[in-house]
Design brief:
The protein is mostly helical. The chain contains nine helices and no strands. The N terminus is likely disordered.
Length: about 230
């Protein structure tokens, strides 16, 4: 048991160290690069820098979301009775997304950017409530609480970065306002402990799914926009 916990803590520390190193490298690159690609007004970062930073953030968020869901599943989602109560219905399912890499590559950059923004905006409310609620579940290990808080903080940073990217890629474009409302707060607060755990399971499952989508779409967008499809 001790060995498993040490391994999880080492994995968490390793991911955090990787992000810190990436941030330091990005800061160095920003200082050494031109202020903006194309001479856009009121801009401080080039598209290369913005996309590099966004991809580093999304990759980190996706990995932490994967680790959080895996650990939750191994700790709480045991037994056929629990699994039979789970209803995997993600609130973002109404947002149309490419089914695979080929579809994403053939999707217009502006459309894919709006899809990413829509997914991120749709998680703002549930992540705020998840961060608050998970702290009240005394049985949750501290590392899981820290991960959820980190996902919320980094996702906020990623949303801000996406707005800067969109302003450069499609200046003056109208926001399509892709958004999916979340109505699952009661599943995290009401009922008995097992019912609440089912609510957490469903939300963490969807969080893992959508952060993985965002990460994949951003990597494809960087290829399409920065490298002009040559990657």
């Amino acid at each position: 048991m001790t060995t498993t916990m040490d391994s999880k803590h080492s994995s968490w520390k390793g991911s955090l160290l990787l992000l810190l190193v990436l941030n330091l490298l990005l800061c160095k690159n920003v200082a050494a690069s031109p202020a903006c690609a194309g001479g856009a007004a009121n801009c401080h970062l080039s598209l290369w820098n913005l996309f590099t930073r966004a991809v580093a953030l999304s990759d980190y968020i996706s990995n932490v979301a994967e680790d959080t869901f895996r650990d939750f599943e191994q700790t709480y989602a045991t037994g056929q009775e629990f699994i039979s109560r789970t209803i995997i219905s993600c609130h973002t399912s109404s947002i149309p997304t490419p089914a695979d890499k080929d579809q994403a590559l053939n999707t217009e950059s502006g459309t894919l950017l709006n899809t990413v923004r829509g997914l991120l905006n749709s998680w703002e409310d549930p992540l705020q409530h998840l961060t608050t609620t998970v702290m009240d579940m005394k049985e949750f290990p501290e590392v899981m609480i820290r991960r959820v808080q980190e996902i919320g903080h980094k996702t906020h940073q990623l949303r801000e970065g996406m707005e800067k990217i969109i302003k450069q890629v499609e200046p003056g474009a109208v926001n399509d306002d892709i958004f999916a409302a979340w109505f699952g707060l009661s599943s995290l607060q009401e009922g008995d402990k097992d019912s609440r755990l089912v609510g957490f399971y469903n939300l963490l499952y969807c969080l893992r799914r959508d952060t993985n989508k965002v990460d994949n779409f951003l990597k494809i967008l960087k290829c399409k926009v920065v490298h002009e499809g040559s990657c």
